[in-house]
Structures are given as C-alpha cells and as structure tokens.
C-alpha cells in the first residue's frame, strides 16, 4: 500500500473510532466528487441530522504556526467544495501524524491498548471568500479544534439545532 493510502486509511479509522464511541454512524462516501470522504449521522435521535467531512492526514511537522493554528495547504477544489453552499454542514478534518515516513511510528499496540499517535483537528470553511489561487490555498485550523468525542457530539448537536430551526 502506498504511503498516502496508508495515511488516508488511518484517518478513516481515527474518525470512525471517535464517531463510534460518541454514538454516531460514520459512513464512507465512496464517490468523492464533492470533497466528502465520510458522513456522520445520528440515526436514532435525529435521523436527518448529518455532517459531511473531508479527511486529510499529514506527517509534515512545520504546519503549526505561532498563531495557534495549523497551516494546511488544501487543494483549491476541496476548498471551494467545503466553503460553498450545502444543505448539510461540512468540515475539514486533518490528522497530524508523527514525523517520518514509517507508518509503524503512527500507532502502538499492546494487550492493554491500541493508540494512534498525535490527533486530528477540524474546521468549517463555510462562508470563506473565493480565492484567486490556481491550485492550493493555505487553510488555518485552530489548535483548539481537536476532533474528539466531545467535539463531534457538539458539532452534531449544532447541526441538529440548525436543522430543526431551518438554518435560521
């Protein structure tokens, strides 16, 4: 398996583990035409409440800047898809992995635990301005936005509230 494929696979496992413990479904979007890799849903309590997400993973270590954010270079197509109008909320989730090219450094396992090293961060690009960039744009992802069980629960509650009020 290619290194980038391994990064994508571990990012999917990461978000699915978070969603599972939080009590939400996390479905793969097999046709990634609109920059959506997974869809989170709550089929029991709010069956129409969903969040779409683009997943990215990187082992680059120079992404954290002094403004307390990750500066991630996102393809312009993904940027436009995520910032544009959508019925469902959309977020970008970026998994930061340990430095290097050895996937064995990303995960540890013993009889007590399975640990994915480092963590993922998220941001909504909704409403951000057009870009004149041709290929990529630097997106700032706040370090405070750790993609966690609590964060996903809050995002789903916000999506449900927005759905119930019709986005008003």
UniProtKB/TrEMBL annotation:
<feature type="domain" description="DUF4365">
    <location>
        <begin position="8"/>
        <end position="158"/>
    </location>
</feature>
<protein>
    <submittedName>
        <fullName>DUF4365 domain-containing protein</fullName>
    </submittedName>
</protein>
<dbReference type="Pfam" id="PF14280">
    <property type="entry name" value="DUF4365"/>
</dbReference>
<dbReference type="InterPro" id="IPR025375">
    <property type="entry name" value="DUF4365"/>
</dbReference>
